[in-house]
Design goal:
homodimer, alpha/beta, Rossmann fold, six-stranded mixed beta sheet, 14 strands
Amino acid sequence: MKKLMNDSRYVVEEMIEGYVKAHPDYIRQLPENDRSLVTTKETREGKVGVLIGGGSGHEPGFLGYVGQGMADGVAVGNIFASPSPDPILEVTKAIDKGAGVAYLYGNYAGDIMNFGMAAEMADLEEDIRVETAIASDDVASAPKEEKEKRRGIAGEFFIYKAAGAAADFGYDLDEVVRVAKKANENTRSMGVGLSPCALPQTGEPSFEIGEGEMEIGLGHHGEPGIEKGPLQTADRVADRLVNDILEDITISKGDRVAVLVNGLGSTPLMEQYIVFRRVEQILSEKGIEIYRSYVGNYITSLEMGGLSVTLMKLDDELAKTIDHPVDCPMFVQK
Amino acid sequence: MKKLMNDSRYVVEEMIEGYVKAHPDYIRQLPENDRSLVTTKETREGKVGVLIGGGSGHEPGFLGYVGQGMADGVAVGNIFASPSPDPILEVTKAIDKGAGVAYLYGNYAGDIMNFGMAAEMADLEEDIRVETAIASDDVASAPKEEKEKRRGIAGEFFIYKAAGAAADFGYDLDEVVRVAKKANENTRSMGVGLSPCALPQTGEPSFEIGEGEMEIGLGHHGEPGIEKGPLQTADRVADRLVNDILEDITISKGDRVAVLVNGLGSTPLMEQYIVFRRVEQILSEKGIEIYRSYVGNYITSLEMGGLSVTLMKLDDELAKTIDHPVDCPMFVQK
């Protein structure tokens, strides 16, 4: 796969450099680690700091979601790899304004280890209280009874948005993390992969898939899904994804949901809206109210082909977080 | 190429249906043509109506740019094909509030014919005054002396933003079109193509390109570029694109520009920011001030691989249009 890059070893550094130069009013690097980015709008005294992070290659996740109404800072890892504890700790120190810091990330072993170490260092060395909410929205990645084993995928967007809003509302650390965990409990995603991406270092495809095939439940680093089969129509794909979600979480007539149709990289908006069309039909037939819809590339996997559908079941508190305005370089909501 | 669709004949209809269902607070269809979309925020009495349009497959262009601060309505064509006069006329009637309507579109024969016919019908049948500004920002598509023959590509985004702001400022029709034309005069784009897209109807690639090759100056429907050669580094590609722009328009030390690095579809944000990094270096070395930067998929060509660089030279009036807030389903600026 062709890449516009200079040296595959420095793609993350060069991306960050370009990103900071493109949006100097929004984002700045911290002095010790060039993988530590924080909002230029100083975190308010007494506001809980919201820290997100994870591997690169998911842009606009995660660095694109630092700004007003979402995260205060991000620690950036290598492509599809967790950031190390040092940048996480540096961001933690920068965004702690006396109220502690909420760590939000997807359920991956490397992230759990590195964010866990950083949290311990923040406590022991800096006396900063850290609490954590881990996203595990991918229905396909473990059985219903073991939600805590599931991967975090596109639903992370809703979880970060909910926590960012809660922190802005002035909630304390326990409350921010409670909201983030509730958002995660209420969020389910199911994806379909059509074509692989390639790591810049190797140029090798992230998974194998035949012409005319699709893979249901594929992870966003190319982790195996639950079923490979012939490519179906957009409507049948939407039926399958929404059906699997609704078998996993009870969403009933009259309930409200936020919907995210998330492109994985190379799938055009046209196809994403065609899939959304069917998602809306299904929910409408069931009397489930769509409170707000997001369609686009929110958490990607480089140039992977495919998309996911995410539903977050809303109560009044989560609906309020969804309505909260956001001003980030890669996502603005009025 | 794999597509998430139902029937290739109805991809545009189904996309529009999904789009309107996803953003009912923003956009609605008019009764006579399902390709006629207007903002739900009623156009102010006495405000110039701003009408954009063109083929589908360029999402978020063009339907994504209907909303406050940009266009009042859009006429949607088939994939890579102009809309017919009927939807254009219907939108014209809906958004005319006594001050006339500005038509903005790219320089393609089909668009010129169809928008021209609609303008004539608006005048003769409805007594609505229409004036037109045609985008022709693609440096590669004709020599400097014949700018009026050039194609419109990603720079259309700046031209629509400038005109939308001018209309919001309360400028009259002549003034809105003057600003749009000035924006076009001051805007230059250069693109590079790495991989083709495929039309849903045929599945055939839009152009041929070898492994390890790139094509400089490729049009955004796959029109031939000016040079095919081996894929170069991101920095050398940026050098070439910016150099060709700066040979075409005088932008001097102390001048201000708006920059757009526009992904064509499947090129990840990571690569777009790596290219932006070098664009910023070049401009900075020349003492050219970047007033505002946009990086992302603003006007695409389905899943085409590659990107373009656009510079718009700013005077105070154009800078003010760039700062103007926008609230559209696919683009929000605070």
